[in-house]
UniProtKB/TrEMBL annotation:
Example of a GO cellular component annotation carried by this entry: membrane
Membrane-spanning residues: 733-753, 759-777
Protein name: Sphingomyelin phosphodiesterase 4
Location in the cell: Membrane
PANTHER family tied to this protein: SPHINGOMYELIN PHOSPHODIESTERASE 4
Organism this protein belongs to: Sander lucioperca (Pike-perch)
Topology term for the membrane: Single-pass membrane protein
Native organism taxonomy: Eukaryota, Metazoa, Chordata, Craniata, Vertebrata
Gene Ontology biological-process annotations: ceramide biosynthetic process; glycerophospholipid catabolic process; sphingomyelin catabolic process
């Protein structure tokens, strides 16, 4: 592609656009590698926005780009894309090459997350430093504002936005897989720019002026200590008074890490503000943003990596007090690790999860949201220590995590309460839903965790006057002549202040806090336990019914002794209600009950009595009752109570096929050609000999009973509707019957019986079996 004589930027861009439709991706990437190496930044500047859009797609979703979210490892283009976009690859080299020249690229404010866009349009400076000093003020007014981003910011914005851009996928394809090129690139970028070991690799490109410089270094007014701390007294700054920044040499080391994280958090999580969330509690308000399962899976990847990144902080830095950091030399990356979760992620993730918990459908896809939450509240799982899975299940949560629990109290208590509200409305007979309840109960039942949460709640409930007597942080330690008692009191006061600040920042000053271990929530837990017990009984009843039906249609049914009613296989049972799934349901719910008792210190005797009483009352009445309904013009109409009874598995309609059994849909275990052929033959025989069959079955002697065994209708329902006996040959169309006949004929051939002899023996055997069933059928049914 690259000619000896460098082309003008306009011709270069035109040729690249033309190659898009004529060359395969591999050749296009090879050409781009040469262009990036050979052309100066001035020419590359003109093609950069087009190239970014070509790779990630347009912000409005019209241009699909390379479809990174649908590109999987089995694709031929998968490795080509990863090689081109990796952190040390050609695309990033282009970014650094342009970064050295301080080029800017515009992004319309309309594509920013809702709360950020609202702030800017109201003339208020957003709290995220990422958007400071980047606003361009056109003459036409605020509504057409643009952000001027440097090349690295522009690249990461488009990469992050690619995840939430609405795209129309081909039918049957969805971007929710964790082996897609996009998911792998997110993981790669996180590991590269937020390394758990070592430091961020330097830029692979340097120009004549030296290494690439940080474009927007933090000022002292926009430091780690300030970002993400939402104090009620903070003043809002007008966007026309954006703070000026001075280059901070210490920030040079991690500006790319900061930019990447802030861009991911803002684009993926910052779609809800506290005011917006409070409005969303009204059912009339339409949800402004609905994340997909793929989106949530990527957020979980971010959460897990940030925990691992934060936990890689050196012990001496972790134990140092905030005041010590101002006097002790700490690398910017280590300082970044110390504050990354609390200051950059906590509030936005909390509102994001709140929205998902409240608006996600009541189905198994909620598992992605649930695991994201459980990953965040268990940072001790991502310390890098190798533990035995068996020991890990019962491992006590170390005391050092008490501070994390206190600073994230609402993540444990409020979200647990919201989960309870979901769980009581979920079908817990479904094994996937039962698993989610078990997972939450198992996590909160970890030794020492419930005690930490209770202590955090006690600190929050301390009287307000505790805060009024707080003293400055610069106090003397006992070794310096201070009082040990006053030192201890100050520590408690700091803890109280920390918990209260956290709650008020996330829920507002006027929040009504409900204790996780209070009386009200204990009642909600007891309600959940009742629903779990009901679901256990329902699962057991369905499982027992399935076992009986399977036993009745097992080996003896091959010989015609089982139920021949085709209705038994037409009862609307789903795959989730198979025997194996129901066993898992019972196991998950049993263990969930044990864990809930452990968390809330419930009396095992009372719990057992509650479950036994519930089981007996359900067996006595509910199992034979229809769901609660009212009679409408066109039949029964479910009430709200009836819907809850069906969802919880307490009651259900007895759905059975009530038409002519001979005209039921052809099953997967039947030969369609034989079904139609045998139906015509049996219809002819029934029409011709119907009178004789009726006369035979009307007799009260042994021959009449034998005739009714072979010729009576196939079910009691059809017997009530049509008392005419008839011959049914449809069982002969079953592959099971065909296989059995084939085995008999092969066995006859081995024993030197001809086809005619084998046929007579089969007919004779069938007749003798009918005699036995006629003579002893009633006794066999009783047993």
């Amino acid at each position: 592609m690259a000619a000896p004589t460098l082309q003008q930027p306009s011709f270069l861009l035109a040729n690249l656009k033309a190659d898009t439709s004529t060359k395969p991706l591999l050749h296009r990437c090879q050409d781009l590698v040469k262009i990036i190496d050979d052309y100066p930044a001035k020419e590359l500047h003109a093609i950069f926005p087009w190239l970014v859009e070509t790779v990630f797609g347009s912000l409005d979703g019209i241009i699909a780009g390379w479809n990174l979210r649908l590109l999987h490892s089995r694709s031929n283009e998968y490795n080509i894309v990863l090689e081109f976009l990796k952190p040390s690859g050609p695309m990033m080299k282009l970014v650094y090459k342009l970064q050295a020249e301080e080029y800017k690229y515009e992004i319309p404010v309309n594509y920013l997350p809702g709360p950020v866009k609202a702030c800017i349009q109201e003339g208020v400076l957003p709290d995220c430093p990422l958007f400071h000093n980047k606003l361009q003020f056109p003459l036409s007014g605020l509504l057409t504002l643009n952000l001027a981003l440097n090349p690295f910011e522009f690249f990461m914005f488009n990469f992050a936005y690619c995840l939430i851009t609405p795209k129309s996928y081909p039918q049957g394809q969805q971007g929710s897989s964790t082996d897609s090129a996009y998911f792998v690139l997110v993981d790669t970028y996180l590991k590269y720019f937020l390394p758990s070991e070592g430091s961020v690799p330097p830029s692979p490109f340097s120009d004549s002026r030296g290494s690439v410089t940080a474009p927007s270094p933090r000022s002292s007014s926009v430091s780690f200590a300030g970002y993400g701390v939402h104090s009620p007294s903070l003043l809002k700054h007008h966007i026309f008074h954006q703070p000026s920044v001075n280059a901070d040499p210490a920030a040079q080391e991690i500006w790319r890490s900061e930019t990447l994280l802030q861009m991911f958090v803002e684009i993926w999580l910052h779609h809800y503000s506290l005011e917006m969330y409070q409005k969303l509690q009204s059912p009339q308000v339409k949800e402004p943003f609905s994340p997909t399962e793929e989106h949530v899976l990527v957020v979980r990847l971010l959460v897990k990596h940030l925990h691992a990144f934060s936990n890689s902080l050196k012990p001496e830095q972790l134990s140092s007090s905030p005041s010590a950091h101002s006097h002790t030399h700490t690398s910017p990356l280590e300082e970044f690790k110390r504050v990354v979760v609390q200051r950059f992620v906590q509030q936005k993730l909390y509102l994001f999860l709140q929205n998902c918990f409240g608006h996600w459908p009541l189905d198994a896809s909620f598992r992605a949201v649930l695991e994201t939450w459980l990953s965040y509240i268990q940072p001790w799982r991502y310390t890098g220590e190798k533990t035995n899975p068996q020991q890990d299940q019962n491992r006590t949560v170390p005391d050092k995590w008490e501070l994390f629990v206190q600073e994230n109290l609402l993540m444990y208590t409020k979200l647990f309460q919201v989960f309870l509200n979901r769980a009581v409305r979920t079908d817990l007979v479904n094994a996937k839903n039962a698993l989610m309840v078990f997972r939450v109960a198992k996590v909160f039942a970890q030794p020492n965790l419930a005690e930490m949460i209770q202590k955090g709640e006690q600190l929050f409930l301390e009287p307000e006057h505790v805060l009024h007597h707080r003293q400055p942080r610069g106090y003397l330690t006992p070794s310096q002549g201070g009082s040990y008692v006053s030192s201890k009191q100050r520590v408690v006061t700091d803890m109280v202040f920390r918990v209260k600040s956290h709650v008020y920042a996330l829920e507002g000053q006027d929040c009504q806090y409900k204790q996780m271990f209070g009386t009200e929530l204990r009642g909600a837990v007891m309600k959940l336990i009742q629903i779990i017990a009901q679901a256990r009984q329902t699962a057991k009843r369905i499982s027992d019914h399935s076992s009986v039906a399977t036993a009745n249609n097992s080996f003896m049914s091959w010989f015609g002794m089982g139920s021949s009613d085709l209705n038994n296989t037409f009862n609307g049972a789903e795959a989730e209600e198979s025997g194996e799934c129901l066993k898992k349901t019972h196991e998950f719910l049993d263990r969930a009950l044990e864990n809930l008792c452990q968390i809330f210190k419930l009396n095992q005797g009372q719990l057992t009595q509650l479950i036994s009483n519930l089981g007996s009352s359900q067996d006595d009445g509910n199992c034979k009752q229809l769901p609660d309904c009212i009679q409408g013009e066109n039949g029964l109409i479910l009430t709200d109570l009836g819907r809850k009874q069906i969802i919880s598995g307490l009651r259900r309609f007895d759905i059975r096929y009530q038409g002519d059994p001979e005209l039921q849909p052809i099953r997967s275990y039947e030969n369609a050609l034989l079904v139609r052929l045998l139906y015509r033959i049996s219809s002819l025989l029934n029409d011709r000999f119907g009178g004789h069959m009726n006369a035979l079955c009307s007799r009260q002697d042994f021959l009449g009973r034998l005739g009714r065994h072979y010729l009576s209708p196939l079910s009691r329902r059809t017997l009530e509707r049509n008392r005419q006996p008839r011959l049914s040959l449809r069982p002969l169309a079953s592959y099971r019957t065909i296989l059995l006949l084939l085995i008999f004929y092969v066995l006859g051939a081995v024993l030197s019986f001809g086809p005619v002899s084998s046929t007579l023996l089969i007919l004779g055997g069938g007749f003798l079996l009918g005699l036995v069933m006629t003579l002893f059928g009633d006794k066999l049914k009783k047993h």
